[in-house]
Sequence to fold (574 residues):
Amino acid sequence: MNSQSIREKSSPLLFLLPSLLIMAFILLVPILMGLRLSFFEWLLRNVSQKPIFIGLRNYIELIKSENFRTSVTVTIRFVLSVVIIEIVVGLVLALLLESGLKGLRFFRTLFVLPIMVAPVVVGVMWRFMYNPSYGKFNYFITSLGFEPVGWLSNPDIALTSVIIADVWQWTPFVFLLALAALQGVPKDLSDAAVVDGANYMQKLLRVKLPYIASILGVTAILRLIDAFRSLVVIFNLTYGGPGVSTEVMSLHLYKSAFVSQRLGLASAIAVLLLMLIVMLSLALIISNLKNKEN
Amino acid sequence: MSLLTMKGRKNLATVLRYLFIIIFALVALFPIYEMVTTSLKNEVDAFTIPPKWIFQPTLSNYKAVLFEGKFFTYFANSIIVAITATVVSVAAGALGAYSLARFRFTGKKLVVLGTLLMRMVPPVILVVPIFLLYSRLGITNARMSLALVYIALNLPFNIWVLRTFIMEVPKELEESAHIDGCSHMMTFRKIVLPLIAPGISVASIFTFRISWNEFILSLVLTNRNTRTLPVAVSLFLTDTGTEWGKITAIATIIAIPAFIFTFTAAKSLIMGLTAGAVKG
Fold:
């Protein structure tokens, strides 16, 4: 009996132990290592030497650094553009296709495809389509009589090209979530609105949008987090260029570590990026909890 | 307006909606179509302007990719790493999820919150510290070391998805098993696991997808013998900028699991994608 109750008490931990160990060793410890390293100067090429403690100097350098500030601006422009466009387009599509369309399930399946494609592959295909001499985009544009566009070579346009690729891949995600949310609107609720004489716009603004607002909010935060994390498509599409016109924070981090070889400085960027993402994640968790209560 | 009857207007609306969804589908599919067809064109057809929409497909790019260089090594690396990561991460995640769904213990809330936060950690943040950690332990450039990172990266999602599935299993089933003398482990294996099979497939597909697609950690943590396909294709891109036939062929091969999952398991995929917002 006694051994039984010991086993009862120890089983929650035993079941959880493998996960806890792996997450502690591979996620938590590296994050703490990175935090510590952000206060040190340490060069990748002299990795055998001891890191030198320099206090907050990495952070001060970042604040003063033109390239870092550019990467923050680029990140914010990228993130806000993709999230706003994806939410608006995804929602409009979901509203248009929400009900009574035969074959909707087939199309819904098709729209999953871009989400599933590897970011590296997305980078490859868009780089091919943006190619100045044999890419399809410039072919379409010039056959319509317009001037060819330097999709990836013009620093004023490259970020837009990156945004287009992200919108292509992730609008279907917003669409799927908005569709699921709309299909969850209780039918008697919208029927009642029709009986009361509401037209489509009134029904949309008074019944549907308020009902799905919470899910849309969560979707927006999920996309925000993902957009701040995104790196691989940009890495393979422009590698931050031309110049630093598409160098987002995550790519700046990578280059600081493996091109400039400054591990401490890169870790300071990692800490800032992580803080941003933790704040967004907490916002996500809180709004999810609120949704559950309602 | 008065020219059209109610029914006529409704029909028109349906036609417009179909037109709309077809345009949307074409936009979603065009880049993929472009990649696949380029991989099936010969050098001349791939680059002619105006483009050749109808062409004689050839497998020459695939032959070149498969039989030159180290494609099979990279392919095997990708498969081994992704499958190992999937099996271990889903197994550990299921056990952890069971613990969080069924037991009460101190610190549980902290574990749940920590897991949710861990799920959002960008891989790029781990690149430097894990590279240093692995170098110190002397385990860089090993496939299993890369798999270990993927196991960890996917664990939070797996725990969290499987937990919602386990919470939907009626507790009475497990209680009667306990009365019959089953241990927790036996109850978990014999009763819970079969009932959460859909959740296991969601978790497996997502873990496989992330591990198969992952790029930045693989780039830093592997060498020319252990590198995975996404890194291989990316190196192709910078080394030989003009060999689009071969590049699109490898890219298409990388995308094959995505095609398979989309057309055989769309329901699980949509469940996993929407789980974050619609449920739980």
Q: What stands out?
A: The mean pLDDT of chain A is 89. Chain A has twelve helices and two strands. Chain A has one domain: 57-293. Chain A touches chain B through 93 residues (CB under 8 Å).
